[in-house]
Design goal:
By secondary structure, the chain is of the alpha/beta class. It has 16 helices and 19 strands. It has 2 domains: 177 residues, 3-Layer(aba) Sandwich (Rossmann fold); 189 residues, 3-Layer(aba) Sandwich (Rossmann fold). The strands form 5 sheets. The chain has an 8-stranded mixed beta sheet, with helices on both faces. The site of cytidine-5'-triphosphate has 19 residues, from helix 12, strand 16 and helix 14.
Length: 417
């Protein structure tokens, strides 16, 4: 059975790209303000310092006390706030920020921003911010009719044209009882959008295809052969590649993980299903990363009915070899012409460098990522050894999320040459 590098990591604060960032979190009026409380907490947990600014309308939905407690800082609600020595909160706050995120951004607030309105602190601050240094990100939230209205759509298009990042919205049941587009994105989605916002777009224009997780080879309708891969490393790489600007397709074996934001996911069970999914997708990919722990063999024939004990003895299983997905793609015309950059994984138990180099040559890939299998399966961190024709580079033990970002950066460097 193959055991490729896997398993898990999602989000230690020390490895977050938000650590140390100074954010202004602005709240305009809307029932989605309740989600801003959780978002604030998540941002602080990710290591950001969060200065909350609220409009009067926002303070109708959630109190500044709540936001102060969660952000650990007094909340600003008025441009006449006398706490500022120069009485210029709009200038001081916007000069100190790495970005301003308005969540929720109401229809009215966006309309005001569009026209350069500045009759309260939050819009005044957005207008007064140094355009080049302090990006403005809006998370719209409103009733579906308000969202679909041509005025709102026109305003959002113009705000984008003016350089503002206007995020998408969620779909579903709304507080008003109607169902449709316009809900504010969930706090975890906003956190992910913000992390992507700050990530250098080293893979812009690339299409990354990945495999992740174990495969499951059926013996009969209720039994099968699988392995301990959790898929966390592959999922972390998919997430890191999306943050770096790539279009990402993830072909996943049976795992209990949610799909990273922005990633297109195709679920498969067996190694042959994985190959059938991957092969056509590879035609549109520019990078293939084989992080899955693909079974090398499958039972020659899965029994159509459960194999019963009362048949006596133990069943004789015959095996046939599965397609080697990585080796097949590495030998494809697309990879040979340089249009598809292939990255393999190797989970070894000892002599990592020698085994990884041998496997890299055997599979015919320019880059192979080695790790010690028993030390990583089921864990949230890992240590990697990258081997290529020049030699090797060790990426020391860290969260799989951080390692995924480092791996993506190394792949991007190689594509530049
Ligand atoms: N792989 C694949 N298809 C397979 C088997 C493996 O794509 N049928 C990929 C894995 O995703 C991984 C790499 O090949 O990127 C190495 O897998 P591994 O199982 O370690 O390699 P094997 O060639 O099976 O070698 P071993 O004898 O060590 O199991």
């Amino acid at each position: 059975m193959s055991h490729s590098a896997q398993d898990g990591a999602t989000g230690a604060s020390s490895s977050s790209i938000l650590a140390g960032r100074r954010l202004v979190l602005g709240l305009s009026g809307g029932i989605a303000c309740y989600k801003a409380a959780e978002l604030c907490r998540a941002l602080v947990k990710a290591g950001a310092s969060v200065q909350v600014v609220m409009t009067d309308a926002a303070a109708q939905f959630i109190t500044p006390v709540t936001m102060q407690a969660l952000s650990g800082r007094p909340v600003y609600t008025s441009q006449w706030d006398a706490r500022e020595g120069n009485n210029m909160a709009h200038i001081n706050l916007s000069r100190e920020a790495d970005a301003i995120l308005v969540a929720p951004a109401s229809a009215d607030f966006m309309a005001k921003l569009l026209h350069g309105g500045a009759d309260e602190l939050l819009s005044l601050m957005c207008l007064a911010r140094p355009l080049e240094q302090v990006p403005l990100i809006l998370a719209p939230a409103m009733n579906r009719e308000m969202y679909a209205h041509p005025a709102t759509q026109r305003n959002m298009a113009q705000l984008r044209a003016d350089g503002t990042t206007v995020l998408g919205v969620g779909t579903g049941e709304q507080a008003c009882g109607e169902t449709g587009d316009g809900r504010m994105l969930e706090p975890e989605d906003l956190l992910e959008e913000l992390q992507a916002f700050f990530t250098p777009k080293t893979l812009r224009g690339q299409h990354v295809l990945l495999t992740a997780g174990p495969t499951y080879e059926a013996i009969d309708p209720v039994r099968g052969i699988t392995n301990l891969s959790s898929g966390k490393m592959g999922f972390a790489i998919a997430q890191a590649a999306w943050r770096a600007g790539a279009e990402v397709t993830l072909v996943a074996g049976p795992v209990a993980l949610s799909t990273p934001r922005g990633v297109r996911r195709v679920d498969v069970k067996s190694a042959e299903q994985m190959w059938r999914a991957v092969e056509p997708l590879a035609a549109g990919a520019s990078i293939f990363i084989a992080a899955a722990a693909v079974a090398d063999w499958r039972p020659a024939q899965a029994a159509p009915q459960k194999i019963k004990k009362d048949a006596g003895g133990s069943p004789e299983l015959q095996f046939v070899e599965n397609t080697d997905i990585l080796a097949s793609l590495a030998q494809s015309a697309r990879a040979r012409s340089g249009a598809l950059f292939c990255v393999g994984f190797a989970a070894e138990s000892h002599d990592l460098e020698a085994h990884a180099q041998a496997k890299r040559l055997r599979k015919g890939v320019p880059l192979l990522v080695g790790n010690i299998g028993p030390a990583t399966f089921g864990q949230d961190d890992n240590a990697l050894l990258l081997v290529d024709e020049q030699g090797s580079e060790a990426l020391p033990r860290a969260s799989k999320q951080l390692l995924a970002a480092q791996l993506v950066a190394r792949i991007a460097q190689r594509l530049k040459h």
